[in-house]
Amino acid sequence: MSAPVDSNHPARYFHAMADGRIQCDLCPRDCTLADGQRGLCFVRQNQGGQMMLTTYGRSSGFCLDPIEKKPLAHFYPGSSVLSFGTAGCNLSCKFCQNWDISKSKEMDRLADQASPQQIARAAVRHGAKSVAFTYNDPVIFAEYAMDTADACRAAGIKTVAVTAGYIHAQPRADFFAKMDAANVDLKGFTEQFYHRLTGSHLQPVLETLQYLVHQTTVWTEITTLLIPGFNDSDEEIHKLSDWVLRELRPDVPLHFSAFHPDYKMMNVPPTRPETLQKARAIARSVGLLHVYTGNVHDVEGDTTLCPGCGESLVVRDYYQILSYKLDERGCCPGCGHQLAGHFAAKVGTFGRRRLPIRIS
Q1: Mind listing the pLDDT tens digit for each residue in 54-68?
Q2: What is the DSSP letter of 345?
Q3: Which residues of 56-67 are buried (b: 16+ CB within 10 A; e: fewer)?
Q4: Torsional class of 105: left (φ above 0), alpha (ψ -120 to 50), beta (otherwise)
Q5: How confident is the model at residue 264 (pLDDT cuts 50, 70, 90)?
Q6: Is residue 71 reached through a cis peptide bond, with omega within 30 degrees of 0 on the bond before it?
Q7: Cβ proximity of 163 and 132 under 8 Å
Q8: Cα Rg for the chain, rounded, in angstroms?
Q9: Is 308's pLDDT higher than 50?
């Protein structure tokens, strides 16, 4: 049996202040902490003038998921991914779909322990193509995620960050240097939405997306959860899509996902499938090549089309691959167009299962 992992781990990205406090330099919240205080994320704490990550090596649970659930549509379709998160978050989303984990301030929710090396070995043992840092935002447990990414890379396992992208420039460069793929939540496209519903700001997220697409080799996809009456207007979807086209690339996949009532927004109705389909149509009309619908059964909205000839190259239904026509270079068999992304000669067969596993 492996020795327990010490959950108190020295953290990076802070500096001492003249009044004896320390300031966290990880994300744009810039929390200033007296001795014993924790940041808004709850997991980073001032302990005697040293920033400590208090959830290192501890997880809310490990699962094998389909990679499409992250969601990633152009990163080894059909493969399995070992997914885990910790507790806490550096945003305050009123619509959080994982609030029992991300809003938790109870360490007893962290039911499983694992070192970075144990996680990498488990991924190999279970046949996972990749490991995903998800459920809560991996930015706040950056040191644990980066150490795990190093162990995974040494074992031949890819790594995926599912994140809101709310992070300062230097830790952003350090963090994403370890990642192979990312799905970034672009939660809305107005500052008012970000301020009122997430307690954060839009611009740092846009900067993260620009950095990922233009300055790294990290495969990047975007998800926007459409909340009825808050961020689903035709005008906002058009502006968001136009920004992705203009400031990123037309081949960056964009996922419009369905909201369900949760956390502090129980009085808001679920997103109608028609809303997702209309958003997809708007984004495609702007010029985006790969636009998907999520959290609903929608084969058309889940299908990857060839930008060259329009052929259906990957047909899906709610994480299940129904048809796959690509080679390892991601080329269309009809016209030879090469899709952006990472593909294999044979599609994975993991399906839509979700399998909880224990590591320690």
Answers
A1: 999 998 889 999 999
A2: S
A3: bbbbbbbbbbbb
A4: alpha
A5: confident
A6: yes
A7: no
A8: 20
A9: yes
User: Would you say the pTM of this structure is higher than 0.85?
Assistant: yes
Give pLDDT tens digits for 227-256: 999 999 999 999 999 999 999 999 999 999
**Structure token digits, residue 158:** 């890819």
Q: How many CB atoms lie within 10 A of CB 327?
A: 13
Sheet holding 14-16, edge to edge: 14-16, 22-24, 32-33
Distance in angstroms (rounded) separating the CA atoms of residues 156 and 202: 35
How do residues 186-230 score in pLDDT, each as one tens digit? 999 999 999 999 999 999 999 999 999 999 999 999 999 999 999
Hey, what are 315's tokens? Answer: 């047909």
**What is the distance between the alpha carbons of residues 256 and 247, in angstroms, rounded to a whole number?**
19
Strand 22-24 to 32-33 pairing? antiparallel
What amino acid is encoded at 127 in this protein? G
Q: Which of 22, 70, 75 is nearest to 314 (CA)?
A: 75
**b/e map of 131-145 (b: 16 or more CB within 10 Å)?**
bbbbbbbbbbbbbbb
**HSE-up of residue 4 (Cα within 13 Å, Cβ side):** 7
Percent of the chain with pLDDT over 70: 94
Classify 75 as helix, strand or coil: strand
**Counting every residue, how long is the chain?**
360
**pLDDT score for 7:** 81
158: nearest Cα among 149, 170, 145, 167? 149
Q: Which residue has the tokens 């709310």?
A: 166
